[in-house]
Write the structure tokens for this entry.
Amino acid sequence: MFQASPEYVKYLESFKRFGVREFAEMPVQRKHLGDAISMLVRQDLEFGILGLAPKTYTPYIYSWGKFVGLQVAKQALSTLKVSTATRIAARVFTMSLLKTGVYQDAFARGWMENLAGIPSMTYFDERAKVFRTRDAECDEASGFPNIGKRVCFYEGAAIAGTTETALGRPVNVFETKCVANGDPDCEFIAEVDSPFPREFCLLNDGDFRKIRKSIIDNMLSTKRAIIRNQLGDYTHLAQFQVLYLGIFLSSPGSHTMLYWVGKNTGNEIAAKVRERTMSAQLKAMSDFLARLKIGVLTWERDGNKLIFEVKESAFSTGAANFHKRICSYLAGFIAGFLGTSWKKPVNVVETECLANGDKTCRFETV
Amino acid sequence: MVERVKTGIPGLDKLIEGGFPVCSSILFVGPPGVGKSTIAEQFIFEGLRNKQPGLYVTLDSSPKEVVKSMEDFGWKLDSLKSMLKFIDGYSWRIGGASGEFVISNLSNINELNIAISEVIKAHGAGTKRKIFDSVSTLLLYADPSLVVKMIPVIVAKSREAGYVQILILEEGVHDPKTVTTLNYVTDGLIEFKMEEDRRFLRIARMKGTAHSRDWVPFDVTDKGVIVKK
């Protein structure tokens, strides 16, 4: 499994405080934006990474989803009142454990309260050690066009990881239905004691173009209908950070990758915004970041440089002090947005960060 | 017979007839967190143990963090530190850089080129080792068209000076033209992938070396990387 950095373990410890409880009861980290972030940002992050090199990053995202499912389920289980009988049952292994409240609490409730989707077990075969889960309003693919492929690598893996924690046995899944395949919901078949998938449904350049176009269009549209009727189009900040921080903290090289993904998105957004004056461009960027609840951006000039302050950054608010500047996606986004707006290469560095013990996140052009 | 340097990872040496060819340049390509930098650190430590000076061009971590990462594996650097030189292309991003070779802004690739020349001069003759971690980060901040022109120069200069070098690339974060150039100027390519709890590497290309192209599993342990085959 992924070797979690000490910083990430620390973050997951802080995640424990959320436990499994109603979304409305979770401690509020962000006064102005609230503790939700557009699911489109989460989709952009994942499919931005996947698009870099699908063959390498698809098993990577699946592995990461499984790791996250495992870790979060461990945290959730540790906050639940689990009966001694259930604990013993878990040790001796019984598939029926999945039908108990432990599984429901650790998985289904947690899923919904983090606004990730609405899961329900639709088939259960104790003897064959197989079960099927439908995930309605899944935040991974909701709003995607029909590309005739199943794309929920992370969500499926998280189901596998969560179940694996409950059963103490290897579990892997394959997706049988998906919104991106034209199905109304996503659906996964999970098999206990099954090996890591040998092959994944790889997306090609055409698939990524369609997905990216849909994400960018949805991000820019202020008048579109809500994609998810019950959960709404925001996902919980803690859930988003578990994905983002995990990837960031897995390696120093992740900064480059996340900056790159943010830069590509900034490029595409600016290309569609097409404001002419600098102040209009900066205001458009600020409005965009606030609307998707990524952060509250203000700016000032310092000689030839532009200094940006981002309050309530979705990437670092509530994070522990890692002594690192972690808002790489955001730095990349600003660089991409300005580069396309000004039609010249722009780089942006993060000089202060909440996750570095600073009071705010600051960026500057270089 | 090709003269070789041991990588510091016996399992990897077995895959490539005993080590990397002297004066070769090897490209590492894979996702973040798979262990590319750890193998590179182990490679440079092996050189230091054998009195081969090392140059570490670090663009993703500070030199202090690289040293700590190496010491966390139990590799004692105390008496060897004088042979290891860093070019710090990371600290400018966060301010407050200090050290012998510090880049003030990575977008100025000439500064990096000059720093490498200075270290080559300071290191003198003989076999040496060099890590470039990572080319992807250089491509991020410097003009990619300049990087594509400059990397062959840096590789050739280092080869001429006796360095066995590893260049690290995050997979996918660059255009195909850049990859083609890097493939063209390097003598070897090692690819990495990750599947759940398992990490794999594959010798995709290695000049003057008979090798298999199979994926081989490896582990990152608290003592460093172990290639299982």
